[in-house]
Amino acid sequence: MFKHFALLIVIIVARFSPANFTPPDLECPEECDCHYFRINWVTDCSESNLTSIPHEGLSLDVYILNMNDNNISEIETFPENIKLRSLHMADNQLTHLKRESFHGLNFLLDADFSGNQIQHIDPDAFK
Fold first, then answer.
1. Which of 9, 37, 45, 71 could be disulfide-bonded to 32 (CB atoms 3.0-4.6 Å)?
2. Which stretches of the chain drop beneath a pLDDT of 50?
3. What is the pLDDT of the chain when averaged over all its residues?
4. What's the confidence (pLDDT) of residue 26?
């Protein structure tokens, strides 16, 4: 009986292993390059000469959003229920970080704002 149980586990693992997993295509803004990195949806809009984050077409399942090297001066509020965990905003034109900008980013783990001219951060910006 144990032999049959072990064989069943091997079949299940082989059937659902990452090598056999084809993730679904998710939404992607026109100006960006989107792809999976391991099992995480990445939206790369770096060096695209953007002046704002392209919320139109941005998947709520995006894990990493790369907005480095653009001309963004303000971060607009993200859509509700977005699952964003990593936000890259280095080398933009940001001068302040407001609380409203990060409202609803309940899964955010890290953010990079280096290379900006930030002069003010609201005390509750990352609350």
1. 45
2. 2-16, 21
3. 86
4. 82
* Topology (CATH level 3) of domain 28-121: 3.80.10
So what's the pLDDT on residue 25?
66
Nearest to 34 by CA among 44, 24, 25: 44
Distance of CA 31 to the CA centre of its chain: 15
Q: Taking the CA atoms of the chain, what radius of gyration do you get in angstroms?
A: 19
**What pTM value is reported for the model?**
0.79
**Phi-psi sector, 115: left (phi>0), alpha (psi -120 to 50), beta:** left
Identify whether the C-beta of residue 102 lies closer than 8 Å to the C-beta of residue 122. no
**What CA–CA distance (Å, rounded) separates 40 from 38?**
6
**Domain range list for the chain:** 28-121
- Looking at the DSSP assignment, which residues form a beta bridge with residue 112? 88
